[in-house]
Amino acid sequence: MSRLWTMDEIAAATGGRLAGGPFASVGGFSIDTRSLKPGDVFVALTGERNDGHAYVEAALSAGAVAAIIAEDKLPGLAMAGRYLIVDEPLAALYRLAAASRARSAARIAAVTGSVGKTGTKEALRSVLAPSGPTHAALASFNNHIGVPLTLSSMPATSTYGVFEIGMNHAGEITPLTQLVRPHVAIVTTVEAAHLEYFSSVEEIAEAKAEIFAGLEPGGAALINRDNAFHDVLAQRASARGARVILFGEHPAADVRLVDVRDGADGSLVTASVLGTQMTYRIGMPGRHVVQNSLAVLGAVSVLGGDLALAGVAYARLRAPRGRGECLTFALPQGGSFMLIDESYNANPASMAAAFAVLGASRPGAGGRRIAILGDMLELGAAAKDLHEALASPLLAAQVDLVFTAGPLMEALHHHLPSANRGGHASSAADIEAAVIALPRAGDVIMVKGSNGSRVAAIVAAFKTRYALAGQDNGADKA
């Protein structure tokens, strides 16, 4: 475990006071005792349903260096503890994050967008790493807690930092980007997501443009030229004094797709990156992945990374769990099937992109393309129409069977041709048994839905029922 902070440094940065001890060096931060590692500092946050102060004793017993606690909670805690006492833990975390950014000489990238934030963040982490130590959150830590946690955990020796910034309301991105202070801000795309909280997609574009509010002087804004709202984003970036860099297939793009050969397991891409032409292979499928690779390589160039090394690293890239991870499972009777795990989240644009990947897959002899879909959430009054509209890209991708779960997906179920209707249930739990028994040799099955639709449980059930090809997971396959 590398030293990240001393508790004296944290106390100075947060304005808190130490009690107890002795204190070891700090290796990280945690807000959850279930994932806390020895050497972490436990930050006792108070939420709507849980108060982290109730878990302080468990955190210290699990090896936490100390717990950051609120002054008014101290009387209710054991006297013999290791504490950093502050006015309010979340506010203290923000002060620590600001101190982390102030001490760092790292070149920083921040990523937002309706689709592709986490994949782009992960790609940047992977392709920048050969050019120098690169810090990024291991998970999708993109909100008002995750961003300061990630920034506080950035080693002072980092050469690069990559931050994902999300939102579902206007005004959420501004304080986070001003905390991160990126040298490069990427907007992957603007699409119909979180419409429950916005009256139009243009309002979403305005909210995404908040990321430019934190750009360092002379910073760059990487904007998708192929998106309908590129002008809005470019205007907002220019108003902040940013250098505007456009990426995409459009001839006017500064980082431009020259040629692509798509395959079931990846793509061979030729691109012009700010005047430098390069060819690279991407180790995962999807035209949306190709599109975002242009933003990634543009950012690498602006941040001073090695483009050639980044191109080589792209060949090793694999989709993370829940965002396109491909798994091949053995069947008890022989043969295998492929599962594409897209269970982390969904909106109309990411659904269409996932269907295109499913359509590009190559089922084995006798195999089928099958989609198992959960509700897309936070779409407001347009939800029914947006679910019905998924029928077109599904059929274009030549998906054979579609199983749907949830009240919103019922609209899609009834909108599909009868030959393509696999089945519908009111929830993912209610359809799980039917779809788990479904696979036959050669099938390619995709599971996708918003996180709240609980379709990730279906993926977990597949993993329990079937062994990965070439492995034995010990599960009962009967």
Number of helices: 16
What's the CATH superfamily of the largest domain, by name? Mur-like, catalytic domain
Residues in helices, as a percent range: 25-40%
* SS class: alpha/beta
> Total strand count, please?
20
Instruction: Give me the side-by-side strand order of the main sheet.
Output: 7-8-6-9-10-11-12-13-14
Tertiary shape = globular
Annotated CATH architecture of the largest domain: 3-Layer(aba) Sandwich
Whole-number mean pLDDT? 93
* Count of the domains: 3
Question: At the first level of CATH, what is the class of the largest domain?
Answer: Alpha Beta
- End-to-end separation in angstroms reads 44 Å
Radius of gyration: 23 Å
**Could you list the spans in which at least 5 consecutive residues all have pLDDT below 50?**
472-478
Q: And the CATH topology of the largest domain?
A: UDP-N-acetylmuramoyl-L-alanine:D-glutamate ligase
Protein name: UDP-N-acetylmuramoyl-tripeptide--D-alanyl-D-alanine ligase
Pathway: Cell wall biogenesis; peptidoglycan biosynthesis
Domain Mur ligase N-terminal catalytic: 28-73
EC number: 6.3.2.10
Describe it for me?
By secondary structure, the protein is of the alpha/beta class. The protein has three domains: about 80 residues, 3-Layer(aba) Sandwich (Udp-n-acetylmuramoylalanyl-d-glutamate--2,6- Diaminopimelate Ligase, Chain: A, domain 1); about 210 residues, UDP-N-acetylmuramoyl-L-alanine:D-glutamate ligase; about 140 residues, Alpha-Beta Complex (Protein-Tyrosine Phosphatase, Chain A), CATH 3.90.190.20. The protein contains 16 helices and 20 strands. The chain has a nine-stranded mixed sheet with strand order 7-8-6-9-10-11-12-13-14, with helices on both faces. A six-stranded mixed sheet has the order 15-16-20-17-18-19, sandwiched between helices. Strand 7, helix 5 and strand 8 form a beta-alpha-beta unit. Helix 4 packs across helix 9 and helix 15 runs parallel beside helix 16. The longest helix is centred in the middle third of the chain and has 17 residues. The relative contact order is 0.08.
